[in-house]
């Protein structure tokens, strides 16, 4: 048994899923993986299930019907993980934009350095993004600045999706009340953890855009994040954040 599980949400990731699973399982720290697949028509789930024969105790999959959104996939994975004995619960993309080697650094921040939520940050030391078009780099960078301005939280990479949570953070946050389902979900989780008084830290990483598969970013997701931040901030005035 391990104390660490990596949640990987998938939709049409057949080009990446086997490679990312094998890479995580090859590391010196033993991790388990939970794939939350939203009915990928490309056979992603079938690839995972075939690999379960090789990794019967380490690899898990939850299949959902239809594309239900990133946020709900992670909430599903959080609840599944909390029902087991995992202490460190990770978010990570399937497409290698997050380097699996950095899982160890995020875990170390929570295990030894006092972090309760460790974020793999693209912007804590300049802009560490590889292969993104400049338009998208600027949109992401200034979106985080916008989030800091509205919410007053001191997080440089508010939309980051590479995160390690200590168990108690996810036990404290009322997961059923997390509102957003797109990339605004990432902002809401960081904002809520900070409001509850948890120690949230950023660890510098290099983010490399996917080389295989298709990005899930859309105008709808961006609008949810832009307008949702204001709604979230206003709603926070009426919430009780006592642990």
From TrEMBL:
Report the SUPFAM superfamilies cross-referenced here: Nucleotide-diphospho-sugar transferases (SSF53448)
Q: Glycosyltransferase 2-like domain location, by residue?
A: 6-172
- One Pfam family name is Glycos_transf_2
Keyword Glycosyltransferase among record annotations: yes
In which domain of life is the source organism classified?
Bacteria
Q: Does the keyword Transferase apply?
A: yes
Which GO cellular component terms are attached? membrane
| A biological-process GO annotation | glycolipid biosynthetic process
Q: Name one GO molecular function term.
A: dolichyl-phosphate beta-D-mannosyltransferase activity
Q: Which UniProt keywords apply?
A: Glycosyltransferase, Transferase
Family, per entry: Belongs to the glycosyltransferase 2 family.
Name it: Glycosyltransferase
Origin organism of this chain?
A: Sphingobacterium zhuxiongii
For this protein's source organism, the top of the classification is: Bacteria, Pseudomonadati, Bacteroidota, Sphingobacteriia, Sphingobacteriales
